[in-house]
Model the fold of this input.
Amino acid sequence: MHELAIISGVVDMVVERTAGRRVATVHLQVGQLSGVVADAMLFCFEIATAGTALDGATLQIDPVPGRAACRTCGQDFGVDDLILLCPCGSADVRITAGRELLVTAVEVEAKSCA
Amino acid sequence: MCLTCGCGDEENVRVTTIDRPAGLDPAESGPAATAAPAQHHDHHHPHQHNHHHDRGPGSDQDQHARLHHPADLERIELGVSLLAKNDHLAEHNRNWLAGHNIVAVNLMSSPGSGKTSLLERTITEHAQFDHAGWSEVCVIEGDQETVFDAERIRRAGARAVQVNTGAGCHLDAPMVQRAIEMLDPRPGALLFVENVGNLVCPALFDIGERAKVVVISVTEGDDKPLKYPQMFSAADLVVINKTDLLPYVDFDLERFAEQSRSLNPGVSIIALSVRDGTNMTAWYEWLSRR
Ligand SMILES: Nc1nc2c(ncn2[C@@H]2O[C@H](COP(=O)(O)OP(=O)(O)OP(=O)(O)O)[C@@H](O)[C@H]2O)c(=O)[nH]1
Ligand SMILES: [Mg+2]
Ligand SMILES: [Zn+2]
Done:
């Protein structure tokens, strides 16, 4: 439900950083534990970009699976929710991946300078 | 406007003052004054070229170029958080609040858990219990519509401003910044922000608060932590309200605490009843340690 607000912020930021150049692709990294739903962002993207330099651009979302590390036994394991529990039974667990919310890069039209 | 989620535009946000001391110009205080100059400090611009598009944006030719000549594209690495804009302003709010020795507490819950009731009772009786010596207790109320809650706070004896988010489902840092400017809390104040009733969206938005509190009432069921993990894993404190109703519902306090700690091992949990006052002192103690 918050994805439009987030995407609108991204559009503003990209417009600012690309100085109004036409943007073809926006690359995001969205962790699967981040609480942000990729599909909802894809849906909102067209609405959020209408009439901006990103109009018609593609949104490329790179999902990052959740991973955690156990402080008790040292093992590194995959997680698909925020429950902090190691297979060894320890709850002294640190999330090491999956919370990413990043605009990694944009592709803009090459400058056609004379 | 997003058709699935119904989130609104910023233009639809209204900030209403319910009570503000006369003669204070909010534009001269508030975090905005310090926010403006620093706003662009970490921004860099990827290129210095001036150039012109001789085609209108979105023209057929333009689309054609984009679809068939990917080699003409230039990749710019950014590595910026999706929440950068919000987080940046949240940091300004946090700095401004810290500079004025103000403790801000963000209250989040589903609608009707008793956030406003908890604040009303706190405003009325905190002075008897807490020893933190707040210069005042004041409130920023967030709701999609109406100024009902701000009016309740005002009747309880504290100053409040109401933020109406329209279709928006959470408060964000810019809204809170505007509200702080208007409210202009006294140095040394305890500032509550009652977020929009929603267990999902507010969890993601830093507003510059010192602590996040989730309020849940026993009538909502003890399975909420696992159903709304983002919210419970972000919380500093979980308040379980309406314990006076425990005899009538099958809310298992132990099960609830276990689920909360499986997401957030260090979280504090206080079970209380705003209605009959049970365990309110634990809440005041927690507040005075902020
Ligand atoms: N039995 C009981 N009822 C309570 C308690 N605390 C609040 N209520 C009732 O719960 C209802 C909702 O309370 P509010 O304080 O308006 O809840 P809220 O979280 O501010 O609601 P929204 O702002 O609409 O999200 C009211 O009818 C309160 O009287 C409590 O400790 N026990
Ligand atoms: Mg309320
Ligand atoms: Zn382990």
Remarks:
- The radius of gyration of chain B is 22 Å.
- The pocket of magnesium ion (ligand 2) is lined by residues B 115-116, 149, 194 (CB under 6 Å).
- The first strand of chain B starts at residue 14 and ends at 17.
